[in-house]
Amino acid sequence: MKRLRQIIFLLVVIALLLVNCTRSKIVSETDYDQLYAVWYDNDYKDSLAQTLQPAVQRALTLSNTVDNRASIDSVLNELRWTRDSVSFHKLS
């Protein structure tokens, strides 16, 4: 009886190791639009992106200087909360 319990325990441990140690077949890409999202509200994200559009256009025309980098970084900091990944990648 004791030997049977040991064999069953060993089989359960082996089965759990095989199930948990195999690689996942699910391939999921990172959703960059929701990477830093606090909540998932598409209306808020779209309206915020529209509000930031003038600042994004101005930041895209700036040259790469120390003072301008601070301005671009502040726009990127606000833009990361939106769903506008195209503008985010252009600026970064």
Descriptive overview:
- Helix 2 (42-61) packs antiparallel against helix 3 (66-79).
- The protein is rod-shaped and about 80 Å long.
- The chain is mostly helical and 92 residues long.
- It has helices at residues 2-21, 42-61, 66-79, 85-91.
- Helices cover 66% and strands 0% of the residues.
- It has 4 helices and no strands.
- The mean pLDDT is 80.
Describe the biggest sheet? none
* Cα radius of gyration in angstroms: 25 Å
Kindly, what is the distance between the CA atoms of the first and last residues, rounded to a whole number of angstroms? 67 Å
Average pLDDT taken over every residue: 80
Count of helical segments? 4
- Residue runs with pLDDT of under 50 for 5 or more positions: none
Counted beta strands: 0
**What general outline do the C-alpha atoms trace?**
rod-shaped
The helix content, as a percent range, equals 55-70%
SSE-based structural type: mainly alpha
Helices and strands, in N-to-C order? HHHH
Percent of residues in beta strands? under 5%
